[in-house]
Amino acid sequence: MTQHTDPSAKLRPETLAIRAGREISDYREHSQALFLTSSFTYDTAAEAAAMFIGEQDGYIYSRFTNPTVAAFQQRLAALEGGERAIATASGMAAIQATMLTLLKAGDHIVSSQSLFGSTINLFNGILAKFGVEVSYVDATDLDAWRAATRPNTRVFFLETPSNPLTELSDIAAVADIAHAAGALLVVDNCFCTPVLQQPLKLGADLVVHSATKSLDGHGRVLGGAVVGSDKLIEPIYLHVRTAGPSLSAFNAWTLLSGLETLFVRVERQCETALEIARWLEAQPQVERVFYPGLESHPQHALAQRQQAAGGTVVSFVLKGGRDAAWRLIDGVEVFSRTSNLGDVKSTVTHPASTTHARITPEARARAGIVEGLVRLAIGLEHVEDLKADLAARFA
Ligand SMILES: *Cc1c(COP(=O)(O)O)cnc(C)c1O
Question: Which residues cross the membrane (predicted)?
């Protein structure tokens, strides 16, 4: 195998998304080869021995890594500006592998309170069973992050912007608070992708991804990854290679093709999302719109500093409450009724009765998940068709 592109070369991110991590076999194929093999062979017993003790590089077994998976890892590491990435079978596998590697019984996490539901279940249901404690804070309140820190705090964790209300955490400021407490900052960069935000460059120690979302971009496969320094990734790699939540070669191959179009997709999706957010703000049926790219967003200045654009998710509150929200969702003909996001197909969700249905009504109210709230994840359809689809339900 020859390495076609040196990921450390001074190429622009748009080029890295297409060329970083590309390896070419002796057949000199132009597209990415898919290595569907569980194991690899050795010329001699001595070579096998050298590989197993790490004296010689090479592929051993696809639970450890595989050429197609390695290409995905190198490309994503280059895009996030990290030294190294480890790919996993899903976004949740990435978060679990990271936490099980960094934490032990008696340790403490400080986390933003608006999190992906399964992440909350992982923290409260699985990590708690092994003696890890979690405190949740309002991600926008830096004093709350500071106040929640304890002597046993090892990890700060956040998602920014939050889902579905698009609240931002100031990554650089939270990183400073974490480091002052001797803790590491882990950022779930699923919503922004490295196209909009590179948390490692702002001071985060590790980035976790659900590659299932925008990195694939077509709703085809599950995947995840953790990106950071070689020193922090090595123990997570050893965990994954032992415990086995490894990314399949087929999924890595699919995700590599997703990365090739990541920039053009996300940039166009953000343009459309901003236009729809502005249009929604002008509709009399709409009480409020949540989108970091709008001047009315309470953290618009931070969004402009921290993100290259407002993102692909727009949420809004309808004055008519749940009836109006469900009528809109039942009526749309272009938007898909599904909770997925980051897809080329636009989707519409009613958070109060789906993604946030299992929390108590009081907790829901505190989190601002009101009955009239609707979340849109904007895809690549023509903006006028998306607007017309919504406008027809407002008429
Ligand atoms: C979907 C998602 C995850 C989990 O990813 P899976 O690939 O579904 O395991 C984690 N964080 C965020 C923000 C997500 O949207």
Answer: none
